[in-house]
Amino acid sequence: MTVLTADRRGHAHGGVQKFSLARFGGRWLSPVLLLLLWELGSRSGLIPERTLAAPSAVIGTLVEMLLSGELPSNLLVSFARVAVGLLIGVGLGLALGLVAGLSRTGELAVDPLMQIKRTIPVLALTPLFIVWFGIGETPKIALIAFAAVFPVYLNLYSGIRGVDLRLLDAAKSFGLSRWEQIWHVVLPSALPSLLVGLRYALSVAILVLVVAEQINASAGLGYLINNARDFMRTDIIVVCLMVYAILGLGADWLVRTVEARALIWRPSIVEQ
Amino acid sequence: MDARLGFTALQSAAGHSDIPHPEPVVRLRDFTRRFGPNTIIDGLDLDIAPGEFIALLGRSGSGKTTLLRTLAGLDEVRGQDVEVPDSRAVVFQDARLLPWKPVWKNVALGLKGDRVRDRSEAALKEVGLGHRLDAWPLTLSGGEAQRVALARALVREPKLLLLDEPFAALDALTRYRMHDLVLSLWRAHRPAVLIVTHDVEEAIALADRVLVLDKGRIVAQERITVPRGERSAISGRLREKLLSYLGGEDHGEGVVPFAPIAEAAE
Ligand SMILES: Nc1ncnc2c1ncn2[C@@H]1O[C@H](COP(=O)(O)OP(=O)(O)OP(=O)(O)O)[C@@H](O)[C@H]1O
Ligand SMILES: [Mg+2]
Are B217 and B28 in contact (CB under 8 A)? Predict the structure, then answer.
């Protein structure tokens, strides 16, 4: 009997090890395999270079572009576009969300407009923005800002309206003023929702950046891609795609970090 | 013996206005509360003396919470004759701590002046939670959360402490501990207390006076003069009596006369 138990435990242990191996090793297995196949396909000539450059070529180009400063300088331009667009868009979204969330009059004034705005796909505005703002930096930043407003607005607004009325009652019963109630109860309870909105805003901003940068840019990742397209440099295009992906990951990491700090009181985070 | 509510005072105070003190902290006259067509509280009179401990019994939906919200100043009274002290505090059935503030900040919520943390710490020590000052509320047990809520109420040194079924969600043992805690805090700070409860035993164990609310009126009240801790002798009879009021038997219209349980007090 004892032997059996020991034996079983041994098995279970092995199972756990196998499982974690499958989780950590296994996750990388298929992407690496794909890269290998891709490399093989390129080398054997199955995938022509004008269709898709080989991974090794892409890495070579990446290093080259990094060293020449071409990639960092253009990345900086794109990054500045997102940053400025987000700053304006998130700022507007915060202001409108607060106004609509905290006052009935504000809600009446703001919410219908925002709902109308929601029905217009942002990118469909590109031609109009070009007519208004020309083809410089302004339409690109305006598009990003315009896209970032709504997720922030909606999530802040619904977060504020979703405040637990029982907590608000408790705060009232202790004689907190209206502003103290907002500061201590309403805003903290809207924060998780606001952070979700922020995450949406970041990802949609990067999406819009990709398209907005196709507007006759003379610098930035979009400019690099356009140029590469004209010279059929698929390696450069892939490098730029990678950078876009890294931008997206970075944005996500940023919000996660903010969340982990701001929502430290949540049980899921507390337990860790 | 509870000195303020001497037996003689009771005898002479029998009748409608039974408060021996000239200045009640709470005074309601002909108070009515409606939600749409439903009259929840119907012409209610209530006086609470300073330092008095009152238990409010009533069936579910009888309007206990509604009355308590009025006393807490959470509902508009629209020109009705309602007097409540400015310094009052509420403990709800669910502790209602702000999950994003550590325990001591919850207790300190809205406190003005200096030494806020010290005062908060002292209150938490008093309820036996001096070691959890910086804990997050979501990590507390139900009983601990309720003790924090008690500390948060008491740190304000209220003249009126309102408790809405504060221990209903706790297990029996914890509930007994909480009774002792509430009584010792009450003795130390002497607020007037109104505790809403479903539990007749709880009412008998804690209160100077038990009110029964039904159909928007106080249909019965019992003053208990026996010292707490010696109440097991009377609790059986009193319990029957209160349960019969709660059981929904028809007691006719209006208020049942005030009846001190004189025999039991001897
Ligand atoms: N805001 C409201 N709007 C409409 N009706 C309400 C409102 N608040 C309470 N009521 C009604 O008033 C009645 C009394 O409610 P109340 O919460 O005071 O009961 P209670 O005595 O505390 O009951 P319980 O013991 O179940 O807590 C109920 O019928 C309830 O539906
Ligand atoms: Mg209730």
Answer: no
